[in-house]
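Q: What structure does this chain adopt?
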Amino acid sequence: MTNKKISVTIPAYNEQDTLQRVVEQAITEVSKLSNRVEILLVDDGSTDRTGSVIASLTHTYPRVVRSISHPKNRGFSAAMNTCYVNADGDYIFLGPADGQFDFSEVASFVRKMAGHDIVVGYRTYNEETVRRKINSFFFHLLARALFGIRLKEFSSCIMYTRNVRDTIHVQADSYACLFLPELMYRSIQKGYAIGEVPIHFYVRKGGKQKGTNIRMIVKTIYEMLRFKVELIRSTHTA
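A:
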């Protein structure tokens, strides 16, 4: 058991069918790793009963669960960024609300944190749809080409220290899936030690898949290219 406080951050958008089960599993499993645990839920403007589920969880677990709500849906990176800037643990973990990740695997992240500033999960067992896997392949291909990120994967689960959060400002705050590529790029530029651990990803336990939304795909490609242009301009003006 570590003496570090662990924050588990979970962004959620219309996850009424899975969120309670996910949070209760996270509390059970992460409490085995530390006596100081925080679960931070970010409701990204859900239109279903996600808000009610979160209210019930904060009432049932007032010393562990806290929440932040966006008045309207702001998107993937915006929800992650809200998690990022508001968690106060020594180790901060970002995980999904859809039940695809088994929170017992957080233990492998904590073990790997020894000697690392960031630990990234890569999927060795993946029950996601073929379409989702294809999208993920091209997402990582583009991010590696644009930003030189030489990791097996960087789009699912991640743990980082509070020092990383305090020293890296992530600009991505929109509908696109740019938050994690930007965080990885800036962390590499800072010279932070990044470790990797294998994880399992299971079939979604309820709700609707969001990563294959065509609007999100187009927006992500646009935002990646825009960020690359900004990096080039900043290099030329430095």
